[in-house]
């Protein structure tokens, strides 16, 4: 009985315990939201035009157990409709960023959707050839290419492909096209397309396979150039080629960059690009000659072989170089056996070749043997190989790929030997290089001379340029291919003009795989690059000559600053005499005349200077004012003097700021420097005494015809302010007079900035022939950006008194003509002897 009672008591107590626990007023805590997890955002690959809702299957769950899917937002640069449907007619990669933000918690997740390109329709070679599917198939980033200052935007417009183009410096920049076209070997194809352009523009058409490494491209139609002028009206264009390779990886390319030296920006439209099997056209074209030039300039005493580097290729017969017949005639039209370079002369070289179908090709070249002076300075470092190479940064070094190369310098013999064996892939796979040791100046002409031989007769190339870390990898300043070395030392010459901007370059001798390659030792004995001493058609082309020049002796530091509107000369040490720091200008005076020299001057610390007018060499002084005291306030000083009977030409006006009686380190400021004969209306003899006059160039404002313009010198160049545009192109204009130009090919270069977008005209006229123009062309300024303008022109006959104009007036219909401020940083002309 007791046991049963005890058990009942325990059961009751346990029940009371359970009830008390169940009714405990302390709740279980809710988790705090600190993270949100996305699901359903895995990357995906879609078929072309497959329906895809970017939110389908995407969820967001917080660590607090709450579903935040309804809070999801997204952003993307791709087109997504209001109903969240991705535009899958756009092939390639689409990036979508999903985001949920709840209070202070923000979670993001990226998702990448790849839309595959459509496949070509049955019986078709191209994807989307009629652009019914927009840009699909034509925007592959592995095919399309933009570089060298180019730009390209491809869009679909009314069932056509619209391509907005800024032309780069190469034919293929920019380009678009398609690869993986299944071309069959030994089959002829015809490629046709419809096109029009906003302006007439020539494009290059290419067929082949793009490669991911050198040589970058396999040409399916070698030596067959296809270029078409696209006009402003719709037209159909076509060309044929015969595929001779077992390669179905290639395709077609439309190259929209610089063709034939013309970099034309345009908007082009394309439609109905079609490839069909065809039959070859009858071969009615002669072989194509390569390596020939219309005009070749060589210097007296050099060696010239008209056959070097010249090849011929025929679509029917292939390489027919050995069939070329070369005929040389002298100035008397008599046949000679070689080019005699012992004296100045002109020769005519005719190249003739025909194929097995009797199709002929003839090319006539003019070879001028010219006498030219060159600087004694050799730009090449260690040119004779007589010094040991620097161990850290050797002046000469070898780069190679695919070959076995052993190189050595023998400073006793003064030679550099390169022993080459193997079969590397390219001409540049073995290089002897000197890099960044010298500078080539834009517009200057140089002579490269080198002495070399080979243990087995062979060919090499030589080039100078800039190596880059990305495409285009190399900028060429000079190149000469197929230089035939013999087994004896011979001296070779290359004459070239620099048409690229001034820069440090490298010289490269290429000895890799090429036509005429042979294993063995190539030995270099001497290398020289010397600048030609040619006429300077526009003096002070960069406006660095301000009329005066600052000179100081070794060990003295002095600087000239004109940014404050005066000549501020700062010196730190006095040197050994007053002449150790000089601020000078040259001039001529007349005998037995009275002159007045005036100038404003002050010093940052009170000090004295010497003022002199004298003839160097004979040291005759017309003015010798020593210890001329300056204060810290601007003061006008006047010196009157009379010349003697002689020693009045070739004088120097000099302000000496070296060791004087009251020398003090600091700055001397000079302004309004003037020297005139002391008679009424005497002309100013000092050039740019106020720091504002441009030395060399002039401004014609033609104020009587409502055109106003002025020109002043600034630290940035010649600043031209056009206040009013006149009715003609030349009202107003900047000009420079050139005394003489001989027949030849010339280039004019300008660098200019403007505060307005407008068109300007370069005009070259002959005042003695009624201002007849021998060349003119227009270019457009870019607001607050420098434009670099290059024009080529030909001088057919000897000319004198040539006027070079930059016109700021009204250019006429189709051009923008506005007032503004224009800074001409540089303008120069050079003869192009390439």
TrEMBL record:
Keyword terms, alphabetized: Hydrolase, Signal
InterPro entries noted in UniProt: CenC_carb-bd, Galactose-bd-like_sf, Ig-like_fold
Domain CBM-cenC, chain residue ranges per copy: 124-257, 378-512, 536-658
SUPFAM superfamilies with a match to the protein in the record: Galactose-binding domain-like (SSF49785)
PROSITE patterns, A to Z: PROKAR_LIPOPROTEIN
Signal peptide: 1-21
Any one GO MF annotation of this record: hydrolase activity, acting on glycosyl bonds
Pfam families noted in UniProt: CBM_4_9 (PF02018)
Protein name in UniProt: Carbohydrate binding domain-containing protein
Organism lineage string: Bacteria, Bacillati, Mycoplasmatota, Mollicutes, Acholeplasmatales
């Amino acid at each position: 009985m007791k046991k049963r009672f005890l058990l009942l008591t325990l059961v009751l107590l346990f029940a009371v315990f359970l009830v008390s626990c169940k009714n405990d007023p302390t709740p279980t805590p809710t988790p705090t939201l600190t993270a949100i997890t996305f699901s359903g955002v895995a990357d995906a690959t879609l078929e072309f035009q497959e329906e895809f809702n970017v939110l389908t299957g995407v969820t967001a769950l917080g660590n607090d157990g709450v579903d935040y899917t309804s809070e999801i937002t997204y952003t993307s640069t791709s087109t997504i409709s209001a109903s969240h449907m991705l535009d899958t007619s756009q092939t390639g990669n689409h990036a979508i960023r999903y985001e949920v933000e709840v209070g202070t918690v923000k979670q993001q997740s990226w998702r990448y959707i790849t839309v595959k390109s459509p496949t070509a329709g049955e019986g078709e070679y191209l994807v989307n050839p009629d652009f019914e599917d927009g840009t699909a198939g034509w925007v592959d980033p592995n095919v399309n290419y933009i570089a060298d200052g180019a730009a390209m935007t491809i869009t679909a417009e009314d069932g056509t492909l619209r391509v907005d183009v800024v032309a780069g410096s190469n034919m293929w920049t920019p380009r678009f096209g398609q690869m993986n076209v299944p071309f069959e070997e030994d089959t002829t194809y015809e490629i046709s397309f419809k096109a029009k352009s906003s302006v007439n523009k020539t494009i290059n058409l290419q067929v082949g396979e793009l490669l991911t490494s050198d040589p970058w491209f396999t040409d399916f139609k070698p030596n067959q150039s296809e270029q078409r002028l696209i006009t402003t009206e719709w037209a159909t264009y076509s060309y044929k080629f015969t595929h001779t390779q077992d390669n179905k990886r290639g395709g077609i390319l439309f190259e929209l960059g610089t063709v034939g030296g013309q970099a034309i920006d345009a908007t082009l439209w394309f439609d109905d690009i079609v490839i069909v099997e065809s039959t070859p056209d009858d071969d009615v074209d002669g072989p194509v000659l390569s390596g020939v030039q219309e005009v070749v300039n060589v210097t007296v005493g050099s060696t010239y072989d008209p056959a070097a580097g010249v090849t011929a290729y025929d679509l029917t017969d292939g390489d027919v170089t050995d069939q070329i017949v070369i005929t040389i005639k002298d100035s008397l039209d008599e046949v000679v056996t070689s080019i005699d370079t012992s004296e100045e002369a002109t020769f005519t070289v005719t190249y003739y070749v025909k194929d097995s179908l009797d199709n002929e090709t003839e090319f006539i070249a003019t070879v001028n043997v010219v006498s030219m002076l060159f600087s004694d300075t050799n730009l090449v470092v260690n040119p004779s190989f007589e010094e040991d190479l620097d161990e850290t940064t050797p002046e000469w070094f070898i780069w190679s790929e695919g070959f076995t190369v052993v190189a050595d310098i023998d400073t006793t013999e003064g030679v550099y030997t390169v022993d080459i064996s193997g079969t590397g892939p390219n001409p540049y796979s073995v290089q002897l290089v000197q890099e960044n040791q010298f500078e080539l100046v834009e517009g200057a002409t140089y002579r490269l001379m080198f002495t070399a031989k080979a243990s087995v007769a062979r060919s090499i190339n030589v080039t100078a340029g800039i190596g880059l870390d990305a495409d285009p990898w190399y900028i060429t300043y000079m190149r000469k291919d197929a230089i035939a070395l013999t087994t004896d030392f011979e001296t070779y010459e290359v004459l070239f003009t620099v048409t690229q901007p001034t820069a440090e370059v490298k010289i490269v001798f290429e000895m890799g795989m090429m036509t005429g390659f042979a294993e063995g030792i190539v030995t270099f004995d001497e290398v020289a690059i010397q600048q030609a001493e040619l006429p300077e058609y526009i003096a002070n082309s960069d406006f660095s000559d301000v009329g005066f020049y600052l000179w100081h002796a070794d060990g003295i530091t002095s600087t000239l600053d004109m940014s404050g509107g005066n000549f501020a000369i700062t010196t730190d040490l006095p040197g050994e005499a007053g002449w150790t720091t000089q601020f000078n200008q040259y001039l001529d005076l007349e005998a037995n005349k009275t002159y007045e020299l005036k100038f404003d001057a002050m010093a940052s610390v009170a000090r004295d200077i010497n003022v002199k007018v004298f003839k160097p060499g004979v040291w005759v002084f017309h003015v010798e004012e020593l210890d001329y005291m300056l204060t810290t306030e601007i003061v006008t000083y006047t010196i009157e003097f009379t010349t003697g009977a002689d020693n009045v030409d070739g004088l120097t006006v000099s302000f000496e700021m070296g060791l004087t009686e009251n020398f003090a380190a600091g700055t001397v400021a000079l302004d309004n420097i003037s020297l005139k004969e002391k008679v009424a209306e005497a002309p100013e003899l000092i050039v740019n005494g106020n720091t504002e006059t441009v030395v060399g160039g002039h401004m014609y404002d033609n104020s009587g015809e409502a055109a106003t313009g002025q020109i002043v010198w600034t630290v940035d160049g010649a600043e031209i302010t056009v206040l009013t545009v006149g009715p003609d192109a030349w009202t107003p204009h900047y000009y420079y007079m050139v005394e003489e130009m001989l027949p030849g090919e010339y280039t004019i270069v300008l660098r200019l900035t403007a505060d307005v977008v407008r068109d300007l005209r370069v005009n070259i006229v002959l005042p003695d022939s009624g201002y007849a123009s021998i060349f003119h062309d227009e270019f457009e300024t870019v607001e607050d950006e420098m434009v670099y303008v290059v024009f080529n022109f030909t001088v057919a006959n000897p000319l004198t008194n040539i006027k070079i104009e930059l016109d700021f007036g009204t250019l006429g219909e189709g051009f923008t003509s506005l007032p503004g401020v224009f800074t001409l940083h540089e303008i120069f002309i050079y003869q192009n002897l390439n």
